[in-house]
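Appendix B. Raw example, untouched.
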Amino acid sequence: MTRRVLPALVVLLVLAGPAVASAAEPPNQNDPCARAGRDTCGTTGKGSYRTYKFGPRWFGDFRGAVRGDAGPTFCIDLRFWYPSRKFRYEKHAASGLVNRDGDDVSASNLRRMNYAMWAFGRSDSANQQAAVMLYVHSLMGDAAPGEIDPGALTPKSRSIYRTIRRDAKRYAGPYRVRARLPDHLIAGRAAEVEVQVLGAAGRAVPDVDLELGASGASGVPATASTGDGGTATVKLTPTDPSAGLKLTVRAPGLAADVPVLYVPARRDAARNAQRLVAPAGTSARVEASAPVKAAPQVVTQISAQSAAPGSAITDTVRVSGLAGQTVTVQAALYGPYPAPDKITCTDAPVWTGSFVADHDGNYATAPVKLSVPGYYTYRESIADSPTVTGVQTACGDAAETTVIRGAPAIRTQVSAQQAAPGAQITDTAVVTGLGKLAATVNVELWGPFPTRDAIRCEGTPVWTGTFAANGDSSYTTAPVTLPAAGYYTYREAIAATPAFSAVTTACGEAAETTFAKAAPAVTTIVSSTAVKPGRQLFDRIKVTGLGKTPAKVEVELFGPFASRAAIRCDHEPYWSGSVDVPGDGEFRSPRVTVRKVGFYTYRERIAGSESVTGTETECAVEAETSLGRPLIITGRGDHVREVVAAQDDEDVPEPTRVRSSALGIDAPVSAMGIDMKAGALGAPENIDRVGWWRDGAAPGAKRGTILLAGHVDSAKRGAGAFYGLKRAHRGDRIQLRSDDGRTKTWRVTSTKLMRKESLPPEIYTRSGPRRLVLVTCGGPFDARRGHYRDNIVVTAVPL
């Protein structure tokens, strides 16, 4: 082992001075080689004299005292004679060494002693040699207190002393060489080997020179060093998988376990003179071996990356990195798959084969004929063995993949060939010719067309969609709601890709076409059940069953009629018009001015066509009927005919008598109609009778207003039946008897005086809450015109 030279350390060598208790001394104190504490025999080497409490001493090594050994030696016996060539030093075994007190020097101390001399004591530095000398004596165990104190050294020697003591503890032997080879060595692939020399403490010893040798590898250096870190990194390249790698590492320059011991042989010197030790060297070696494997590389190229069904394909396989080994290459072909991103290589292969590769080069697999469209991919592998590292190519590599092209065809059938607007339809598409390939089918629904001959697949379809076709199969499109009446036709298409050709179904095929015929329904509600003549009416029209089919709604208003029973729709209407509608929805007819009293009724019609079934509302439907409101004039000077109400088909109770003791009313009741000429409700000729408007509510009805009108008075006959009506107050009771024998009591809730032309429309209604309304004339009498200005309106509710 070599070690950098450090400054010398002065070692105390006791030659003269005061005696120290418990420290051995030579029997003969007369040292023939000393004068004034200094060596007179000329055997001192590198070092210096220093004087301290033990007197002047030599701190350093001795040279020339041992015949045949010109190197540095170190004394191990303090206070004994300086060495001399005349003492005839002889080499003795250092094992079992005892100090001058007779105590054993341990094997550990001997190893550290020799390490210190070997690593640091072969120097020409006085400071370094002094430090070695002091450390050697510290291991003998026979010094007097303070006799080997490093304080006697120079500052530089003391620093070196601390280094020697630390390194001897860390790096003293015995030694072993450790070579760490990688776990996996690949032929032809550079590798690194870590080499360390470990001392007894298990530490890696720095700066050890190494000698290297190897078989089964190239690039191995002849020498290396463990360097400052204690580890040598050796780069090499394994070459032979058959024989493996064998590496020999030798460390020739290590410190031996024990130093060389020299003992004086002359009789008087044997008892009195210093014994000397010299550094001894040794070597250590290790042989390391490891298996080496070939790591073949496999690069492949399929014979065609696109082919027609029935084509035969092969795979060209380039094998390299065999390093002289022979292998069997297994080949597998997987498929068919619908798309490249669906390739898995986890299912059973469609074909397998193998070939023997005994050298680096190109090989070809056996041809395979493929008939089903889809994506196919090769995968090659070499099994792992003691001399070969297994390898497998990637699944789905582009260079390994081919597509057997498809020629798709589509056969379709619409879900229903007859439908209605608002209905949902689908299309069933049977796709063939794709094999296992995946395709996106684009779907278009065209329409509506008025006739089958008008079908064209041009412009913008009414609906578009897609579905994924994963190979040959039957598929159903998403449901589509038909917006309007007419003819509709599906058309499907698959766009061309490298994997298959394009296909588009014909436009207007019978199996792809459905006919949606609208069957509209019209319901209406007149804007008001009663209006003052001169005001306007319109009809609220609700159309269903058209979807988004445009249509024209023809509107007719018939009237005026004196009663509901008289309503007919078989003659010229009072007014007619039309409303263009875009389809289902709610609409309004144009406004119409009602100029005369009487009943008016609407009737609507949608004409039929090839795609629309005609429809017409009924005549005289109550929701479509409004009343041009008649006046009620029942006072002196009024001239209204007694109009007997026309009979209708309704079998309802009719009122026969009205009484109210609080109002002084007790009068028979007759059914009345409208005096169309006077524009007023008919009134009984007898002023003691009361008229019931037959087209209002009947006594037994659950809804609507029972309207009674009676005379207040007559210029010739005096007070009439409703003369006392003006005295009505909230809470007054009124009884109404009907021809079914029942009498119903009503309670007055309000009494109002209003202008005749301002009568509320709700008194003429057969809808709304149950009420009894009694009307007569009242207010101031207009003598110039000869009649009362107002009406008295009394409202009552049932008890």
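End of appendix B.
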